[in-house]
Amino acid sequence: MDNQRASLASLVAQGHTAVLVVDMQPLFTAMPLVPALDGVLPRLQRFLAAARDSGVPRVFIRIVMPEDRWTAVWQDQFAGRVRPDDGSAVNLKDALAPGSPVTPFAPGFEPEPDDLTIVKERYSAFVGTELATELRSRGIRTVVLVGLTTDVCVGSTARDAFHHEFHTVTLSDCTAEQTLARHESGLATLAANFGRVCTSEEVLAAWQARPALAAAQPS
Length: 219
Hints:
Layout: H1 8-11, E1 17-22, H2 26-29, H3 37-53, E2 58-63, H4 72-77, H5 92-95, E3 116-120, H6 131-137, E4 142-148, H7 150-163, E5 167-176, H8 180-193, E6 196-198, H9 200-216
Helix pairs in contact: 7-8
């Protein structure tokens, strides 16, 4: 068995790679996350534009939770934040409800007509959705994870992508979390167990190199 790891360029080649854009919604873009979003969001917009220009499919994912999905398990986990009594916490049940003003895609992160959109009801975009089937039908073997937040919905989706037998790449500079410690710890866990972690510049360099390499091949 060949134990040599594939190069990043071959892993994220345009013909079999998709970008999963996780939870770019006002509920999350308004949070004070780390790294600071005033740097992360413009960088992510540039990366998504480059993906589109490179012919890489983009999947825009958002979370919406109807009333019946607030099971006893979820209500117990978020006790005090589902129906906060003192107004000091976000009422998650209302915030994530269908029709909530903070669940559409955030301005600047709306999908275009050719993009795939997925609405999920759990942290992972693979739970209860057709995401895996949609990716396979398009010949996708590698997914690049970006969005919010690193250690929860991005990390959960990356882990499930790995469990569904997709190569998984998470971008450290196009994700953010509530604390730097959680951001870095989440990325370290993904890198050690569920795929690779790199920067958007590394993936962009790989995409830019592939057409040049193809053009250099003898016909």
